[in-house]
């Protein structure tokens, strides 16, 4: 936290109004002076798929030496419906948008923190994924994010890639997160049986924005897995939520195999991430998933 006499560090962002970026803006708005390249901005709209717009904004902010790139086409099913279509929004935003940012960072001497996903993996690993595991996407969203990562990794700028999985925050956001979708299902009594054979690595967004602050402060570069580092089945996670929040719901077990038979797009069975590489360098401790869930605030839902 800064005292009032210190000036804030200027940082450029994309996607700062989204589920994850908005938490960074809330928790670190006193530390950083964020300028967001926002496609829906009323006076200065910036579409990251348009290089000239991105370059103009980066050139106009010489004081900001770091760019955080949250913006993405994040609808996985929507992306699947665009598969192999490089003129579609998923490819244009996730791949071309990222390439435009890289090029503009190169031209203006800025570094890039790129937010990525465990969906770059095929989900067949029994263990949690480590950074040295090769990417192996099985659907179009994961493929576009893998291409974006490849572009970042070969860029001639200082870069950091942070991969996360199944993010959730302490308070609800209009786009419901992993935990709040389950909470909503339990509160309304409509929660489907939860898979006992589908594994994820929940990411506590409140902690993840502290990881981003760490990267900004320390200028650490490289590829890092940045979830909680834990591996949970949907069923165990929902049961734990139910108990911790005293929702009094009977979570029923389901199995992924029968669900997959009804699903048109491929689905990763395990997207948990090993975060030891990150934990070794952080100057604070990540919360356990159970500690994080105990911080979920009521009222749980917006609307
Ligand atoms: N949510 C997840 O489950 C999850 C899991 C793993 C990784 N991630 C990654 O984390 C990052 C943030 O995800 P999120 O869930 O916070 O995203 P989100 O809530 O869907 O927000 C995406 C943001 O991208 C912006 N955007 C989209 N197209 C744009 C364009 N052409 N030009 C400029 N901005 C554009 C949107 O701006 P407007 O608001 O103005 O439309 C929005 O603010 C993404 O890179 C995603 O791949 C997310």
Topology:
Elements: E1 9-14, H1 21-28, E2 32-37, H2 51-59, E3 66-69, H3 76-80, H4 89-108, E4 111-117, H5 140-153, E5 159-164, E6 167-168, H6 178-188, E7 194-195, E8 199-200, E9 203-204, H7 205-218, E10 222-225, E11 232-233, H8 234-244, E12 253-254, H9 256-262, H10 276-281, H11 289-293
The site of NADP nicotinamide-adenine-dinucleotide phosphate has 27 residues, from helix 4 and strand 4.
Molecular structure report:
The protein is α/β, with parallel strands linked by helices. The protein is built from 11 helices and 12 strands. The strands form 4 sheets. A 6-stranded parallel beta sheet has the order 2-1-3-4-5-10, with helices on both faces. It has a two-stranded parallel sheet with strand order 6-9. It has a two-stranded parallel sheet with strand order 7-12. Helix 1 crosses helix 7, helix 2 packs parallel to helix 4 (89-108) and helix 4 packs parallel to helix 5 (140-153). The model has no long low-confidence stretch (mean pLDDT 96). Bound molecules: NADP nicotinamide-adenine-dinucleotide phosphate (NAP). NADP nicotinamide-adenine-dinucleotide phosphate binds next to helix 4 and strand 4.
């Amino acid at each position: 936290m800064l005292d009032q006499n210190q000036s804030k560090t200027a940082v450029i962002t994309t996607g700062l109004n989204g589920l994850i970026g908005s938490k960074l803006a809330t928790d670190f708005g006193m530390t950083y002076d964020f300028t967001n390249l926002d496609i829906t901005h009323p006076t200065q709209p910036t579409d990251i798929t348009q290089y000239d717009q991105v370059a103009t904004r980066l050139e106009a902010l010489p004081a900001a030496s770091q760019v955080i790139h949250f913006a993405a086409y994040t609808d996985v099913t929507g992306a699947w419906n665009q598969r192999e279509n490089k003129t579609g929004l998923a490819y244009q935003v996730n791949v071309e948008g990222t390439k435009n940012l890289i090029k503009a960072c190169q031209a203006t001497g800025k570094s890039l923190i790129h937010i990525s996903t465990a969906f770059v993996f095929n989900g067949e690993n029994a263990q949690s994924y480590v950074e040295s595991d090769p990417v192996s996407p099985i659907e179009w969203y994961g493929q576009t994010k893998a291409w974006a990562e490849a572009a970042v990794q070969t860029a001639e700028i200082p870069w950091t890639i942070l991969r996360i999985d199944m993010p959730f925050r302490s308070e609800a956001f209009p786009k419901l997160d992993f935990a709040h979708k389950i909470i909503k299902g339990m509160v309304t009594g409509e929660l489907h049986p939860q898979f006992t054979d589908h594994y994820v690595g929940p990411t506590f967004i409140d902690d993840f924005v502290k990881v981003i602050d760490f990267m900004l402060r320390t200028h650490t570069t490289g590829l890092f897995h940045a979830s909680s580092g834990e591996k949970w089945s949907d069923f165990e996670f929902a049961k734990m939520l139910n108990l911790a929040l005293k929702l009094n719901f009977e979570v029923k077990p389901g199995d992924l195999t029968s669900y997959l038979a009804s699903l048109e797009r491929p689905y990763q069975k395990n997207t948990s991430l090993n975060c030891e590489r990150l934990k070794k360098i952080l100057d604070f401790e990540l919360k356990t998933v159970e500690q994080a869930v105990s911080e979920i605030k009521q009222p749980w839902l917006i609307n």
